[in-house]
Design goal:
alpha+beta; Heat Shock Protein 90; two-stranded antiparallel sheet; 12 helices; 7 strands; 13% strand; His_kinase_dom
Length: 375
């Protein structure tokens, strides 16, 4: 009997063994009944048997074992993928999910060989094909399980960031009220420090919320108005000069810089780029901010002197939770490594782009934004 026929003829003992093993996955399995313990295992077995009967080339079989084979049936999601989603919601961890497939593989093969299957050429072929089909199911399950866990992690971060904003705003308002009420120098210093720390925390929470939205595929929300980016950038540069007193920040503007933008988001992007330049660039050298516009787009660039960035590291700069090494070891490190990621998302929300060049000791980040919203 070929393995596909054996699976069809022995579904119940195979599933009984799989159910018994799933019941040992504690504490997640403690609240699951027999149907939930089996979950999509019957459909997975059906898909495996169908796969064993299908004609496949060597390259197709290799792709299948790597989880790259087209789905066996035309459903939006495979049984292995749905099984992974439900196991994630039930509280299984990824090692328990993979262990289920190990147990399923062992159950099928042990029952097959207990039936006295001879080791002929067909047996070897079926063994290879069976393992490839199980590997495909594992790859599909792991990918979906990981994506589901990441999604819930981002939801948690978003909820946490949102819920913390209320108490933090109360702290800031109270600190600002105390600052206005006191005229004693020691108390004033303490309240100023409290306000500065609170504002720093608010910035971190805002970054966390933006990261969560982007990671969930929601993108950053923007509100376009017709504004002159020159005045917007001048205001932000003045604030940055106050916040970064040790940095020399120059600004120049030319061309047509009035268009449809979210001024607040552009200021946020500029602030992140200049702060990044101050943190990682060579100290006591100027940071140059340039805004150049025409009738199609504006280009906002921030350049600074410093060690050149290796070409192979440039794309990673815009990945979330990545931080470089500050040029000054004493520089502030209380950041989440989200600044350049958020700049990229701001550019994307405007249908623009962010690029970076770095050579001969000069690094330039350029934010390119269209003058108007795309049709």
């Amino acid at each position: 009997m070929r393995l596909a026929d054996f699976i069809d003829a022995n579904v119940e003992p195979i599933l009984s063994a799989a159910e018994a093993f799933a019941a040992t996955m504690l504490p997640a399995a403690s609240h699951l009944d027999a149907v939930a313990l089996r979950d999509h295992m019957p459909m997975i077995l059906t898909a495996v048997a169908k796969d064993l009967r299908s004609a496949q080339t060597r390259s197709e079989r290799l792709a299948k074992s790597l989880g790259q084979q087209p789905r066996i049936h035309g459903a939006p999601e495979t049984a292995a993928q749905i099984h992974a989603l439900l196991r994630a919601k039930a509280g299984f961890d990824i090692s328990q999910l993979v262990a289920e497939y190990r147990a399923l593989r062992a159950s099928v093969l042990s029952l097959w060989f207990e039936g006295g299957k001879a080791g002929d050429a067909d047996t070897q072929e079926d063994l290879i094909r069976f393992n490839e089909a199980i590997d495909q199911a594992v790859a599909e399950s792991v990918a979906y399980f990981t994506a589901e866990m990441d999604r819930w992690r981002h939801v948690f971060l978003g909820v946490l960031g949102h819920d913390l904003r209320g108490p933090l705003n109360s702290i800031l308002l109270t600190a600002e009220l105390l600052s206005k009420m006191t005229t004693e120098a020691p108390l004033e210093r303490h309240t100023v420090r409290l306000i500065q720390s609170g504002k720093r925390m608010k910035t971190l929470l805002d970054d966390l919320l933006d990261f969560s939205r982007a990671s969930l595929g929601l993108g950053l929300g923007i509100h376009r108005t017709t504004i002159d980016l020159t005045s917007v950038c001048i205001e932000e540069v003045e604030l940055l000069r106050t916040a970064l007193p040790d940095a020399e920040i120059g600004f120049r503007s030319e061309g047509e810089t009035t268009g449809s933008f979210d001024g607040s988001r552009v200021r946020e992007a500029l602030g992140n780029l200049v702060s990044n330049a101050a943190r990682y660039g060579t100290k006591q050298t100027a940071i140059d901010v340039a805004l150049v516009g025409d009738d199609r787009q504006v280009r906002l660039s921030v350049s600074n002197a410093g060690e050149s960035i290796p070409t192979e590291n440039m794309q990673a700069l815009f990945e979330p939770l990545r931080r470089g090494r500050p040029s000054d070891e004493l520089a502030e490190t209380a950041n989440l490594g989200l600044g350049l990621f958020i700049v990229k998302e701001i550019a994307r929300a405007h249908a623009g782009e962010i690029t970076v060049t770095s050579s001969s000791g000069t690094t330039v980040f350029t934010l390119v934004l269209p003058q108007s919203a795309p049709d």
